[in-house]
Amino acid sequence: LLAPLETVQAEEPLPTVFVVELTGVVDPGLHRFLQRALQEAEEAGAVAVILEIDTPGGLVETAMQIKKLIYSSPVPVYAYVRHSALSAGAYIALSCRKLYMAPGSTIGAAEIKSFTGERVDEKTFSAWEAEMRTVAQNQGKDPQLAAAMVRREIAIEGLVNDRQLLTLTTQEAEELNFTDGVFVSREELLAKLNLQDAELTEITPSPAERLAR
């Protein structure tokens, strides 16, 4: 008699995580790069996208377009602030599914100004403040803290007076529950997300995209 054939089970493929570099000024070139990155993540069947953020801010209109990309992405997008997420960068970080930070990083200082460096009209200012409040609320963060990043007039006792913009250190963000966790390394963050065994795909701007920016 022939011995029965042993059943061979194929190993399930490891989940894929896309790590996307978000550095420099927030401009239309960055929007096009992130659009490509999120599309590639979706096509690859990625289970998560991590935006590693280090930006001084940039164009508000572009930041709002990036928020739409993040919100419409079928792949969950997480923010990992490696150094700083200021101005429009803070808005993008708050637009993600969760906001994580590295020790020594900062987030805030989101006052909106014109190209000449002057304060914009109240209508535009109010709309931007509402945007910051909304993304903070959607992420489960205190909207008043987000508003204080936009308006100097908003004072928060023990944190910022009515002549300063709010910028939070990692420690302050952690104490105020304005971050979902502080992680020294990407590996620590992946372990938090139960993705420590995932295959990583790192996406950086192409030479052409860098030149366009």
List keywords for this structure.
single chain; 213 residues; alpha/beta; 8 helices; 7 strands; 38% helix
> How many DSSP helices?
8
Radius of gyration, in Å, reads 20 Å
Share of residues in strands: 15-25%
Task: Outline the low-pLDDT stretches.
Answer: none
Counting DSSP E segments of at least 2 residues, the number of strands comes to: 7
Distance between the termini: 71 Å
Structural class: alpha/beta
Describe this structure in words.
- There is one protein chain.
- By secondary structure, the chain is an alpha/beta fold.
- It has eight helices and seven strands.
- It has helices at 28-43, 60-72, 88-95, 122-138, 143-150, 170-175, 186-192, 207-212, and strands spanning 16-23, 48-55, 77-86, 99-101, 106-108, 167-169, 199-203.
- Strands 1, 2, 3, 4, 5, 6 and 7 form a seven-stranded mixed β-sheet that branches.
- Helix 3 (88-95) links the parallel strand 3 and strand 4.
- Helix 1 runs parallel beside helix 2 (60-72), helix 2 runs parallel beside helix 3 (88-95) and helix 4 (122-138) packs antiparallel against helix 5 (143-150).
- The chain is globular and about 60 Å long.
- The mean pLDDT is 91.
